[in-house]
Design a protein that fits this description.
The complex is a heterodimer of chains A (152) and B (89).
Chain A lengths: L1 E5 L3 E5 L4 E3 L12 E5 L8 E5 L6 E6 H4 L9 H6 L14 E10 L2 E4 L5 E4 L4 E4 L11 E2 L3 H6 L1
Antiparallel strand pairs in A: 1-2, 3-4, 4-5, 5-6, 6-7, 7-8, 7-9, 8-11, 9-10
Chain B lengths: L10 E4 L3 E8 L4 E6 L9 H14 L7 H8 L16
Antiparallel strand pairs in B: 1-2, 2-3
Classes of the chains: A mainly beta (152), B alpha+beta (89).
C-alpha cells in the first residue's frame, strides 16, 4: 500500500490499482495526471477526486445519475481514445464506466457540471473530463438540496 | 458581433497576425485552421468555460461542512438510483 496526503483526511493508504490516469489532466489542471477516487460511507453520495501530486487539490463530485437519472453521454472520438474505448459507439455509464459531475457551491447554491463530466474507464483505469458535444447539459446545473426542498 | 459570409477555402484576417482559414464545411461541422502568434491562446470556448469552472471548484474549502453537504445533496427521491456496487471502490 502506498500512502498519499489528502485534502480532507490527512494521510490515506491507497493501492496502485486504484490510481486513475488522466493522460491530458483536466482543463485548468493539465499537469495533474493521477487521481484516486475516495468514497466514504458517512459522506455518501459525495465522491472525491483527490490528486496524488497535489494534496490540496481534491474535487467534490456526484455520480451523474444521482443528479440526472437519464443522463446520456455524447463525447468525441478524441476522448474515447484517451479513455481506451472503441470509437464505434457511445459508451454507456455502468460498472465499467463511471461518470462524475464536479460539484461547486456558488452563493449557497450547489451546482454540478453536467456539460463536462469526469468519465472514468474503470478496467483501463483511465479518466478524462469529457466536454459533451451537441448537448444542452449545463455547466452549472443547480441541484435541489434536501433542506431547501423541505423549506420551500 | 461582426458577421461575415465565407466559403470553404476562404480566410479571414484579424489584425496583422491572426488568420482564420475555413478548411472544410461539413453538414454539421466546420473545420477551421487558425494561425496566430504563440502568445495568443487559442482554445474552444467551452474548454475555457470548463477550465474556469474547475479552477473555482478547486478553491472550495469545506472541511467541517462535508457531512452536512452530503446529507443535503442526497435527495430521497433519487435514492436507489446510484451506480452498481462494483463501480465503487
Amino acid at each position: 500500500m502506498a500512502k498519499c496526503e489528502t485534502k480532507y483526511w490527512g494521510q490515506l493508504d491507497y493501492s496502485q490499482d486504484a490510481v486513475i490516469d488522466f493522460p491530458a489532466g483536466i482543463p485548468g489542471f493539465e499537469q495533474e495526471r493521477r487521481f484516486v477516487l475516495i468514497e466514504q460511507r458517512e459522506l455518501d453520495p459525495l465522491v472525491f477526486l483527490q490528486s496524488l501530486a497535489t494534496p490540496t487539490l481534491c474535487f467534490l463530485s456526484l455520480h451523474v445519475r444521482v443528479v440526472c437519472r437519464d443522463y446520456k453521454l455524447s463525447i468525441s472520438d478524441e476522448y474515447l481514445e484517451t479513455l481506451g474505448l472503441q470509437r464505434t459507439s457511445q459508451p454507456s455509464i455502468g460498472p465499467k464506466l463511471a461518470c462524475l459531475a464536479l460539484l461547486h457551491i456558488d452563493e449557497n447554491e450547489v451546482t454540478t457540471n453536467l456539460l463536462a463530466p469526469i468519465v472514468i474507464h474503470i478496467p483501463a483505469r483511465r479518466g478524462a473530463q469529457a466536454i459533451q458535444t451537441g448537448s444542452d447539459y449545463s455547466l452549472q446545473h443547480r441541484i435541489d438540496l434536501v433542506e431547501a426542498a423541505v423549506c420551500a | 458581433m461582426l458577421m461575415m459570409k465565407r466559403r470553404a477555402g476562404e480566410s479571414i484576417l484579424i489584425g496583422d497576425d491572426i488568420e482564420i482559414h475555413l478548411a472544410h464545411i461539413g453538414r454539421t461541422r466546420v473545420k477551421i485552421g487558425i494561425q496566430a502568434p504563440r502568445n495568443v491562446p487559442v482554445v474552444a470556448k467551452e474548454v475555457k468555460l470548463v477550465r474556469d469552472r474547475n479552477l473555482a471548484a478547486a478553491e472550495l474549502r469545506l472541511e467541517g461542512a462535508l457531512a452536512k453537504l452530503a446529507a443535503r445533496v442526497s435527495s430521497p427521491r433519487l435514492q436507489g438510483n446510484g451506480p452498481p456496487a462494483d463501480e465503487r471502490q
